[in-house]
Amino acid sequence: MFALVFLWFGISVPLVxxxxxxxxxxxxxxxxxxxxxxxxxxPEQAWYMNPVFxxxxxxxxxxxxxxxxxxxxxxxxxxxxxxxxxxxLFIVLIILIITCAEISIVLCxxxxxxxxYLWWWRSYLTSGSSALYLFLYATFYFFTKLxxxxxxxxxxxxxxxLIASYAFFVLTGAIGFYACFWFTRMIYSSVKID
Length: 194
Prior knowledge:
mainly alpha; golgi apparatus; globular; membrane; single chain
């Protein structure tokens, strides 16, 4: 208990104050172009630019980059097997980061080309939706590979996989958002306004 209190008051609390001090000293982010105060009307979108459809499609590619490795991770967690290929896991993580950034940038570009400027949350949800496929794969893994019959064990499994899926959602969503944020700042900073 003393170690937890020390971690909280000795590490977490000082880091909060250091981070807030650094954050208040940094200048505010400025937009690369001047924006109009009155928002433009978004024109009629094509069927494939529907937010739900594009978000669900955007999550397939990042999940596809990790689902083979996910089998080995789930096997090592739930079937008590050793996992020892961390070098390959690091390469898969790099591929996941690149894939999340690319799919978010591509779908954000399509969205901006169709004059839909509401890209902030869609960029987060596009790559973050791969967590939905991760949870669906965990459900498939539960019914095909595991021999769990007790309800408490099933609730424990799905609870842990829900937490892991949420963490994956936050990770991939943050990657997609920051990639789109960088992309939109780069393309709009090169626009010359007379």
